[in-house]
C-alpha cells in the first residue's frame, strides 16, 4: 500500500527531538531531519513494510546524525570548558558550533505522545542530559537513545545500527556508566510543581524590579550562571550578584516573555532600547532543583534563537509589561 506523505510528516517533531539529542543543536537537528525525510522519499520503493514506518524513519535519521558526527567535535557548555570565573575576567566568545544550544519544546516534543512517553522525552532534552550525551562516542550515544529513550529492544537497535546484539549490550553498558559518572540523570516530573510555579513568579517579579537580592535568594548555593557564546561562567549566588550589579547592570529595566526550552522553563529577555520599547538580549533557560534555581543559562544569539522560539524581535512600550504566567506546555 502506498505511504501517504502525511504519515511521514507526522513523525517530524519526534525525529527532530531525537536528532537534537544526538547533535546538541536545534538547527542541526532540523537540517538532519530534512535530510532524512529526503532520503526516506527517495527510498520509499525499497520500504517493504517488514518494520514499522516509525522504526524505518528513526533508522534513517540516526544514520544521518552518525554521518554528521563523524566529522564534528562535540558541543559543550561553558561549565565543561573551563573552571568558574570571576566578574573581572575578560569576555571571550567562541563560535556557536562549539556550544550546546537550546531547542523549543514545541519543536522536539510530539503532541501525540502519551503522558508517560512525554515525560521521558521531556527529561531527555534537558540541557544537562543532552550535554552528558555529547561525551559519549556517537554510536554509544545512538544505542543509549534508541534503547532507553525510545524503548527499542537490543535486537531492534542492532538491526538499525548494523551491530550484533552482544555489541549493542556492551555499548549500552559503557554508555550507562559514562552517564552515571557525569551525574546526568534527568530530573523526574513532567510539569512544574506549585512550588516551582511560585518560584518562577518570584523570579519574574524580581527581574522586572531588578531586585538583585531577591534574585540571588532564589539560587541554589552551587548554582551556575552562563552566557554562551562567552566562555565565562560563574558559580554561586554572590558571584551572580556581583555580575548583576556590575557588568550586567544594563539589564535593569529588562522584560521577560515566557517560553519553554529543553523541557525547562525559559524566557525571552528584552533590554530597554534607547529609542523606547525593548529589544532582544538573551534566551534564558532555567534549570530548577525543587524550589531553587540550579542553572541560569542566558543564550545571547537572539538573532537566530528568537525567531526559532516564535519570540518577537521588538517589544513596543505598550507591550513590555504584558507577561503571562510561566508554565510548561502540555
Tell the overall outline.
Answer: globular
What about the largest sheet?
6 strands, mixed
Residues in β-strands, percent: 5-15%
Could you report the average pLDDT, rounded to the nearest whole number? 91
Number of helices: 15
Helix content class: 40-55%
Low-confidence stretches: 322-330
- Write down the secondary-structure element order: HHHHHHHHHHHHHEEHEEEEH
CATH architecture of the domain at 83-132 and 182-330: Roll
Cα-based radius of gyration, to the nearest Å:
21 Å
Polypeptide structure, described:
The structure is a single chain. This protein has 330 residues and is of the alpha+beta class. It has a domain at 83-132 and 182-330: Nuclear Transport Factor 2, Chain: A (Roll). Helices cover 45% and strands 14% of the residues. The protein has 15 helices and six strands. The chain has a six-stranded mixed β-sheet with strand order 2-1-6-5-4-3, sandwiched between helices. Helix 2 (12-23) packs across helix 3. The radius of gyration is 21 Å and the shape is globular. It starts with a helix and ends in a 22-residue tail after the last helix. The model is unreliable at 322-330 (pLDDT under 50).
Short description:
It is built from 15 helices and 6 strands.
Give descriptors for this structure.
330 residues, 6-stranded mixed β-sheet, alpha+beta, 45% helix, 15 helices, globular, Nuclear Transport Factor 2, Chain: A, 14% strand
Amino acid at each position: 500500500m502506498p505511504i501517504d506523505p502525511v504519515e511521514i510528516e507526522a513523525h517530524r517533531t519526534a525525529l527532530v527531538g531525537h536528532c537534537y539529542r544526538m547533535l546538541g543543536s536545534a538547527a542541526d537537528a532540523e537540517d538532519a531531519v530534512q535530510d532524512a525525510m529526503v532520503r526516506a522519499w527517495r527510498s520509499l520503493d525499497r520500504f517493504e513494510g517488514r518494520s514499522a514506518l516509525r522504526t524505518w524513519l528513526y533508522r534513517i535519521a540516526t544514520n544521518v546524525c552518525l554521518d554528521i558526527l563523524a566529522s564534528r567535535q562535540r558541543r559543550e557548555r561553558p561549565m565543561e570548558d573551563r573552571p568558574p570565573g570571576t566578574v573581572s575576567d575578560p569576555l571571550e566568545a567562541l563560535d556557536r558550533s562549539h556550544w550546546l544550544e537550546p531547542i523549543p519544546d514545541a519543536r522536539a516534543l510530539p503532541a501525540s505522545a502519551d503522558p508517560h512517553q512525554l515525560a521521558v522525552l521531556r527529561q531527555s532534552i534537558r540541557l544537562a542530559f543532552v550535554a552528558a550525551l555529547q561525551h559519549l562516542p556517537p554510536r554509544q550515544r545512538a544505542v543509549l537513545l534508541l534503547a532507553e529513550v525510545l524503548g527499542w529492544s537490543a535486537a531492534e537497535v542492532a538491526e538499525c545500527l548494523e551491530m550484533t546484539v552482544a555489541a549493542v549490550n556492551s555499548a549500552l553498558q559503557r554508555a550507562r556508566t559514562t552517564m552515571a559518572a557525569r551525574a546526568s540523570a534527568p530530573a523526574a516530573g513532567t510539569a512544574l510543581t506549585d512550588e516551582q510555579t511560585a518560584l518562577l513568579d518570584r523570579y519574574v517579579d524580581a527581574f522586572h524590579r531588578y531586585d538583585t537580592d531577591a534574585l540571588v535568594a532564589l539560587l541554589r548555593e552551587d548554582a551556575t550562571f552562563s552566557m554562551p557564546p562567552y566562555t565565562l561562567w560563574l558559580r554561586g549566588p554572590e558571584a551572580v550578584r556581583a555580575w548583576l550589579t556590575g557588568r550586567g547592570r544594563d539589564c535593569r529595566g529588562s522584560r521577560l516573555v515566557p517560553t519553554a526550552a529543553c523541557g525547562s522553563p525559559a524566557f525571552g529577555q528584552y533590554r530597554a532600547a534607547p529609542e523606547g520599547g525593548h529589544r532582544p538580549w538573551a534566551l534564558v533557560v532555567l534549570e530548577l532543583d525543587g524550589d531553587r534555581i540550579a542553572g541560569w543559562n542566558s543564550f545571547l544569539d537572539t538573532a537566530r534563537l528568537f525567531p526559532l522560539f516564535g519570540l518577537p524581535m521588538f517589544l513596543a512600550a505598550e507591550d513590555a509589561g504584558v507577561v503571562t504566567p510561566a508554565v510548561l506546555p502540555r
